[in-house]
Design a protein that fits this description.
The complex is a heterodimer of chains A (116) and B (113). With 116 residues, chain A is mainly β. Chain A has strands spanning 3-5, 10-14, 19-21, 24-26, 32-38, 45-50, 56-58, 64-68, 73-78, 87-96, 102-106, 110-115. In chain A, strands 2, 5, 6, 10, 11 and 12 form a 6-stranded mixed beta sheet that branches. Chain A has a 4-stranded antiparallel beta sheet with strand order 3-9-8-7, with no helix packed on it. In chain A, strand 7 (56-58) and strand 8 form a beta hairpin. Chain A is globular, with a radius of gyration of 14 Å. The termini of chain A are far apart. The relative contact order of chain A is 0.33. With 113 residues, chain B is mainly β. Chain B has no helices and 11 strands. Chain B has strands spanning 5-7, 10-13, 19-24, 31-37, 44-50, 53-57, 64-68, 74-78, 87-94, 103-104, 108-112. In chain B, strands 2, 4, 5, 6, 9, 10 and 11 form a 7-stranded mixed beta sheet that branches. In chain B, strands 1-3-8-7 form a 4-stranded antiparallel beta sheet, with no helix packed on it. In chain B, 40% of the residues are buried. The chains are: A mainly beta (116), B mainly beta (113). Chains A and B meet through strand 6, strand 10 and strand 11 of A and strand 4, strand 5, strand 6 and strand 10 of B.
Chain lengths: 116, 113
């Protein structure tokens, strides 16, 4: 069965600091990986995704993530965070399910707080 | 365009009762999925429906059921509520059943007393 581990549950950074959130997954099939973000008071939304090709993917708001197959990792990075990046970040892997559908398996999330 | 809409936003029930949650997908989206999010955890997959058929079911008891209507809206039903069913229930829609790019609603916060 697939699983996703996020190592940092709470992260506090000052503005302009660099960010790296860890994500490791376990899945035996073709990997589709995602980072979702939930800003305070808003719904969960897609930040970036990896399906195939270039292992370095870029998302919205200056975020990027690198897929390292040998390490089963998909870490999220941003060179310089802003106060508005305060949110909860979820890593997820897409998997086929019986019946032909798909499901996302999410990690437990990382709560990021950026201080001014 | 309207996003995914869910109703109600909050709900309080007592143990043993039944609840129905509703979801309207983004216009043109044919797939609806349901997730349960317990405080401090990531969302957990409950169901996926595509073209009105169940295409996937997560590790939830038979007390949980769902359906999708011809207009692609969906309902999630939970019978014989337990305290442990207290959670945020998220609906997400996608264009196709295979897409991992989900568009989430704001959820229904269910409290079971």
């Amino acid at each position: 069965a697939q699983s996703v581990s996020q190592h940092n549950h709470h992260v506090i950074l000052s503005e302009a600091a660099s960010l790296e959130l860890g994500c490791n997954y376990s899945y035996g099939g073709t990997v589709n990986l995602f980072w979702y973000v939930q800003y305070p008071g808003q719904h969960l939304q897609l930040l970036l995704k990896y399906f195939s090709g270039d292992p370095l993917v870029k998302g919205i708001k200056g975020f990027e993530a690198e897929f390292i197959k040998s390490k089963f990792s998909f870490n999220l990075r941003k060179p310089s965070v802003q106060w508005s990046d305060t949110a909860e970040y979820f890593c997820a892997v897409n998997a086929r399910v019986t019946g032909g559908g798909n499901k996302l398996t999410f990690g437990t999330g990382t709560q990021l707080k950026v201080e001014l | 365009d309207a996003g995914v809409t869910q109703s109600p936003t909050h709900l309080i029930k007592t143990r043993g009762q039944q609840v129905t949650l509703r979801c309207s997908p983004i216009s043109g989206h044919k797939s609806v999925s349901w997730y349960q999010q317990v405080l401090g955890q990531g969302p957990q997959f409950i169901f996926q429906y595509y073209e009105k058929e169940e295409r996937g079911r997560g590790n939830f008891p038979d007390r949980f059921s769902a359906r999708q209507f011809p207009n692609y809206s969906s309902e999630l039903n939970v019978n014989a509520l337990l305290l442990g069913d207290s959670a945020l229930y998220l609906c997400a829609s996608t264009l196709t059943q295979g897409s991992g790019k989900l568009f989430f609603g704001s959820g229904t916060q269910l409290s079971v007393l």
